[in-house]
Design a protein that fits this description.
The complex is a heterodimer. By secondary structure, chain A is an all-alpha fold. Chain A has three helices and no strands. Chain A is rod-shaped, with a radius of gyration of 19 Å. The relative contact order of chain A is 0.11. Chain B starts with a helix and ends with a helix. The chains are: A mainly alpha, B mainly alpha.
């Protein structure tokens, strides 16, 4: 495990990699980091999409105040 | 009695939306380290977008519960609902959940971190918990169900337990997030249900799961279940012996023999399948490896004399390290008389050789004295 691969995962985890993962190869640590990054990305995109769709469902009368609370 | 690496990989895979096979390289990492990693990933995933999710939770207050439920189901979907749930006022979350279909709530439950929504889970009506559990059981979501156990009040837990069959209950108990909750879960089950679970463990060969559960419960509960198993037909106990032999589970079985009643222990010890030499070798190996000499001696005192002779023969021929470990526990727990009772079955010449060997080992003189007294 090189420090580059570990650093990339630690950046995604926002913390230290558990000691037991030191036996993983660089490619495996990178795979974990990429999967975590992709999962965060998917979640953010789903949130953006969900909010857009929600605003369409909210009745016009309430839409302004809901939008204001979401995007203040 | 340890975390299961495969289960931990499965739980982590679910968090990052992967298949367990895609993370198979983690199989050589200690389960506790995978669990620690999962904890970190959980925090990261639930904290990502937290500000916006918090605003969504606040905005929910501006609209009626019925509309919030529609938005949750149609616009947000189960993942975002799972992320927002813990940020809502529990009473508001329960109100919204009451308007959502069970199928959708089951999907949310799979993606929820129960620790972050504990207050909400505790306030969901027991009947609804039973319905959600039933759907989760149909989908074989054992891990998700196992995560909720410590967060459900008794009425809800009863409702959940009543909603699933024995197989589901055993498989869920096996992957429970916090195994210390197993005692409370088992405490809710009637004697009849426990009998049925033991019978299911036998019929479906789920002894690995059943014995794992037994290793986490209280000594009284372990004894109660051991007594139920011992009261069953020979073939049920034979099934357990066979599973213990195949999977190396004697470290789980020995504490059960210690906890069961004397009558049950005698009945189990008389079982033909347990008295075979290869099995006895395995049991002694487990007793050494896991320092379970005390339950082994208690169990072996119930063996017939011919079987005790085999045990004595294995002990007399054991390596120094094994014998020393046994003698140390004997001295510590005051088991000199019991061990002498077993080893005195050796033929005269073997007993003489064994006694000479004991003379050179630490604590060996105590067993020699007990053998003379015997």
């Amino acid at each position: 495990m090189t420090s580059d691969a570990r650093n990339a995962l630690e950046q995604e985890l926002d913390g230290r990699v558990p000691d037991g993962l030191q036996k993983l190869k660089d490619g495996e640590l990178s795979d974990l980091a990429e999967r975590l990054q992709a999962a965060k990305q998917r979640q953010s995109e789903a949130l953006d999409k969900g909010i857009d769709e929600a605003l369409e469902i909210v009745p016009r009368l309430a839409r302004g105040s809901v939008r204001k609370m979401l995007f203040k | 009695m340890s975390l299961n690496g495969g289960v931990e990989i499965l739980k982590l895979a679910r968090l990052v939306d992967a298949e367990a096979e895609q993370l198979s390289y983690l199989q050589y990492v200690a389960p506790q380290d995978i669990r620690d990693l999962r904890e970190q990933v959980t925090v990261v995933m639930f904290d990502a977008d937290r500000q916006m999710l918090q605003r969504v939770a606040s905005a929910t207050k501006l609209i009626p519960g019925k509309l919030a439920a529609v938005i949750g189901e149609r616009a947000f979907g189960p993942l975002l609902c799972a992320r927002v749930t813990g940020l809502l006022e529990p009473s508001r979350a329960v109100e919204i959940a009451g308007r959502l279909p069970t199928e959708f709530l089951a999907e949310v439950a799979v993606l929820l971190d129960p620790r972050r929504a504990s207050r909400v889970i505790a306030e969901i009506p027991a009947k609804q918990i039973g319905e959600i559990t039933s759907t989760l059981a149909e989908r074989e979501e054992f891990i998700a169900m196992g995560g909720f156990v410590g967060h459900l009040p008794e009425a809800s837990l009863r409702s959940a337990v009543d909603a699933v069959d024995d197989e589901t209950l055993l498989l869920t108990a096996y992957v429970l997030e916090t195994k210390s909750n197993l005692g409370a879960l088992l405490g809710l089950l009637s004697e009849q249900r426990l009998e049925s679970i033991i019978s299911t463990a036998h019929e479906l060969d789920l002894w690995v799961e059943a014995l794992d559960v037994l290793s986490y419960v209280s000594e009284d509960q372990r004894g109660q279940l051991g007594d139920i198993a011992a009261a069953a037909e020979d073939e049920v106990l034979d099934g357990m012996v066979s599973a213990a032999e195949r999977e190396g589970l004697w470290a789980d079985v020995l504490p059960v023999t210690r906890a069961m009643s004397p009558d049950s222990r005698t009945r189990f010890a008389k079982l033909e399948s347990v008295q075979k030499r290869p099995i006895l070798e395995q049991i002694i190996g487990a007793a050494h490896e896991h320092r379970l000499w005390s339950p082994l001696i208690g169990f072996a005192t119930e063996f017939e004399q011919a079987t005790q002779l085999q045990v004595a023969d294995l002990i007399a021929g054991a390596e120094d390290e094994v014998l020393d470990s046994l003698l140390e526990v004997m001295a510590q727990d005051g088991l000199q008389a019991e061990l002498a009772g077993i080893t005195s079955t050796l033929e005269d010449a073997d007993l003489e050789r064994f006694s000479k060997r004991l003379g050179k080992r630490e604590n060996g003189d105590q067993l020699c004295e007990a053998l003379e007294a015997a």
